[in-house]
Specification:
The protein is mainly beta and 83 residues long. Helices cover 0% and strands 25% of the residues. It is built from no helices and five strands. The chain has a three-stranded antiparallel sheet, with no helix packed on it. Strands 1-5 form a two-stranded antiparallel sheet.
Length: 83
């Protein structure tokens, strides 16, 4: 996540799995939030994002390590890279 405002801001991210994370976002610097869970994929994630700023402007990217075709809840994978 990157704060693209000239003012710093506090952010809270509440996932539907795991603990919330809080950070101060410095202007124009990136901050990485990592959320994970030990379970068979795919996992459905939902995030509630809160800021106490009157002018919160941020950009973000979301990444996943799950690959379509990987095993799902104990099923055998047909993905060519699976073992």
């Amino acid at each position: 996540m990157k704060n693209v405002n000239v003012l710093g801001t506090m952010i809270e991210i509440h996932p539907n799995h795991g603990k919330p994370q809080r950070r101060i976002l410095i202007p124009f610097l990136e901050s990485v939030f990592r959320f994970d869970i030990l379970d068979d994929g795919p996992i459905s994630w939902r995030f509630d994002i809160n800021s106490q700023s009157d002018a919160f402007i941020a950009t973000y990217e979301v990444y996943s390590t799950w690959i379509p075709g990987d095993s799902v809840a104990g099923q055998k994978s047909d993905h060519p890279n699976s073992k």
